[in-house]
Specification:
Chain A has 662 residues and is of the alpha+beta class. Chain A is built from 22 helices and ten strands. In chain A, the strands form two sheets. In chain A, strands 2, 3, 4, 5, 6 and 7 form a six-stranded antiparallel sheet that branches. Chain A has a four-stranded antiparallel sheet with strand order 1-10-9-8. By secondary structure, chain C is mostly helical. In chain C, helix 4 (73-85) crosses helix 5 (102-116) and helix 5 packs antiparallel against helix 6 (121-132). The chains are: A alpha+beta (662), B alpha/beta (197), C mainly alpha (198).
Chain lengths: 662, 197, 198
Amino acid sequence: MIPELGHFALILAAMLAITQSILPLWGAQRGDARLMGSAAPLAVAGFVAITISFAALIWAYVTNDMTVVNVVANSHSAKPMLFKITGVWGNHEGSLILWVMVLAGCSAAVAAFGAALPSALQARVQAVMGMILLGFLAFIIFTSNPFERIWPPPPDGQGLNPLLQDIGLAIHPPLLYVGYVGYAVTFAFAVAALIEGRVDAAWGRWVRPWSLAAWAFLTMGISIGSWWAYYELGWGGYWFWDPVENASLLPWLAGTALLHSAIVVEKREALKIWTVLLALMAFTLSLLGAFLVRSGVLNSVHSFASDPARGLFILGLLGIYVTGAFALFAWRAPSMAPAGVFAPISREGGIVLNNLLLCSITAVVLVGTLYPLFLDLLTGQMISVGPPFFNAATAPLALPLVMGMAVGPMLAWKRANLWPVLQRLWWVACMALLAFILTLTFAGWHVLSALGFACAFWLICGAAADIADRAGVGRTSLRNALNRARHLPRAAWGAAIAHAGMGVTILGVAGMGLAVEKLVAVPPGGSTQFAGYEWRLEGVRDFIGPNFTARKATITVLRDGRVVHVMEPSKRYFPTGRMTTTEASIRTSVAGDLYAVLGEERANEAGVNEAVLRLHNNPLAPWIWIGAGIMALGAAFSLSDRRIRIAAPARRRKDAEAEASA
Amino acid sequence: MSEVAKAGPKPSRRKLLVYAPLGVAAAAGLGFWAMLRGLQDGSFNPRGVPSALLGKPPPDFALPALESSGLPALASADFRGMPGPVVVNFWASWCPPCIIEHPHLMALQRQGVPVWGVNYKDRARDAQAFLTRHGNPYARLGVDKPGRVAIDWGVYGVPETYILDRNGIIRWRFAGAITPELMAQDIQPLIRRLSAR
Amino acid sequence: MKIFLMPSDAGRAHRRAWLRRVFPSLGHKFRLAAPAALRPDLGGGFWLLALLLLLSAPAFAQIGDTTYRLRDPEQETRAREIGKELRCLVCQNQSIEDSDAPLARDLRRIVREQVELGASNELVIRFVHERYGDFVLLRPPFRWSTLLLWATPALALLGGIFAIWRSRRQANTTGIGPLELTEAERKRLAILQGDQKA
């Protein structure tokens, strides 16, 4: 009964989405306030309907309803409750429901916080959101219905892939989806602006918070995914340039460019056409990611399981949204007059450089990801495009980007002088140079890592220099400067924090460049020297978990005879999927991670049982993800800026709520 | 882009540039559509990596025979001066797909096509038991216990099957278990063609 | 122990019959098919799964000794560098250094043996390339068919610069006004900048 209710709610949501995509649009064309006013309640109602549907699916999982095919294929009664719930979005159908729920939530949020929007703009934005919603609801209902029943029910489910039975699945996809889907809002704003044929500062002010919020969530989502791969896959790697990873990086790159160019629209009414195009591209790329992963063109090792009908359906949706939007762009963009002239050396000029480099990196990642597919299609040749290519092709573009990141925020709008800015950055350059030299001196000939450390210090100190400069440190008394720093616009703080966060992430990446590992077979009681520690294998024992059995090793890590840490890496065997996973044991400190993986157990030539251990020393590794968190924090700071809050002048009372949403 | 140029009576250059995203998206969309169609009819298969040795003779090697099987051993010299095409199959007793494809190898053998085997990383006892239980399709059988020769052939894993023409040139390779469709559509026609010449 | 509830033989037969009905085309493959449905578009690496499920590992170790490492740390570093360039063919997108697939182990061993014999990086990579083709190289080789790929960074950059140049020229010619500020404007700007540097 409950699954049918969920199915019904889904169909109801689709009906609401049809209405939402027609009535407000029609109203906006005719100037009918009543029709335009229907947008907000329809959006909220749609969100409620999809939430009910999602709750119904969770219910089916929680109660082990084995008459639902989706539950059978992805769950098992012996699974811990947390993973029963998170398993709902650990599969294609369930994750789509989450996706549309987030989309409907964004639509409802536009309705809730957008009361001050010009009603025609609000109506058009909601209509576009309704169209996107409708497409994906139809996709679920016609090709990926999670509420399908089976009778007679099998005795138990197939279980969830053990790799997914992790807290990572609880937080990673929802964050990622909020990021992906957040760009649907900027997309809708861009399409609405194209329909109206007008982009102005007010439009920029509306788009910016959405692009900021989507960016913050996407940043967190990607970094948690990377962290998850780092500890769950057990190879100590955090980024593999895997097509699936690239699919999430592409909208992030385009979104980062959008974030910056939207500032120019808001402040100077320049780069308008370009910003609209970026808003269209950010969402196009997040849809492309969904297509690549769900259609089977990428991971066709499982080609028997991927349904080409689904791929064609998504491609059709993409065709409608993307070509529709780009055709509208081609038709309307030339009519938008460029405005806001600026000199090449200026804040705007800096942001243009940022956009140029970010878009070039986007192009490299996009082409690198798709090239093998298209080459195979056109010529039948099979090639691989892997980390060596992406590292070599993006680094030369990323380096000037990072160098510009410290300079850009200190340039004046419209026209600036480069020399005084560089003078204010001299100590920052010295720090970077010092980091470079120190790395080469103490860590050996690791030029790339040294360059990474230099970039990290350049960014972190550069952010500090930016704030110091704005506060007038050196030009006024320290007390005065501190006071001014406190009252700097939140957006200025946000930018500095986010840029410093990027520096922190680069610090971690550079540190990982110095990572070392050791593979060793140790008998119980034996020990090995690695990374300045003594690692003693106390023993390996059996361990029984809720739905797995495991072999668990106990390793005591000693320094100068003192116990530093006890590590317990294990290998888990899941009977339901007949799969084995390795659970790395990680000891995190500010200096980095010690990382231990238990390999096979075997007898050596002398007949003594040994356990194979893989030990990693990953200097500064945690800072990769901490840096991403700082970046997201910077975005949150910018979101709380007064300018964004007062964007709704007519409804001051709503300000507090708007801030809460940030 | 020529189509785009016709869009307006006299399009300015600026106008051409705004059509660029549409053009790129449309081209990519067409490509993806072709890929999906290819996935459906099997003409596009990102998994089917062609062997680097196609059109070349096999590498130099000499493998020992499987003791107790009484079958002759296999070496690269055996590929010289053959009367017709030959099928080379890499297999192991511990590989379930090898059991699935085994009847097809037996069928080829009954048909009179020489099937030569390479037993990959296997125990002699287990390999012998496998042949006793499922039948022996192999006219020659080399034992590659360390798996080195397999790497020289560019083998991914077992089972893997090659077809060589009478001059000892590799003409076809398939990684994975042979299926009835593969037998009917690829293997049989190719062997017929190679035998006819 | 409810935890280790494995289907009894009767249950298993029931389950198999059920599977055959729901997925007639898949039959015995169903266990392999399930994980594909478990791959939502997450950023993580779910290909490990493919590796675990699609490979049948030999029951005993052969040349793929997991602990095989070169004594000379410089040579070992070089072997790792080479390994990072080579794709583990049976995995989704990992290098042979990041995989425990039997083929990856074998190739790791072969790379190390050749490095120990003094072969240059190029020679070792060519050895593997000759056997496994372009697909094994994670850094695609330069040739006509990959020209566009390798030229992408330069093309994107030049294209972007061209677009910027054109739009600036157009803005200048359409007469929005001179770029130069008047002296008065400059003074006002300086005052404004001094005050609020938002």
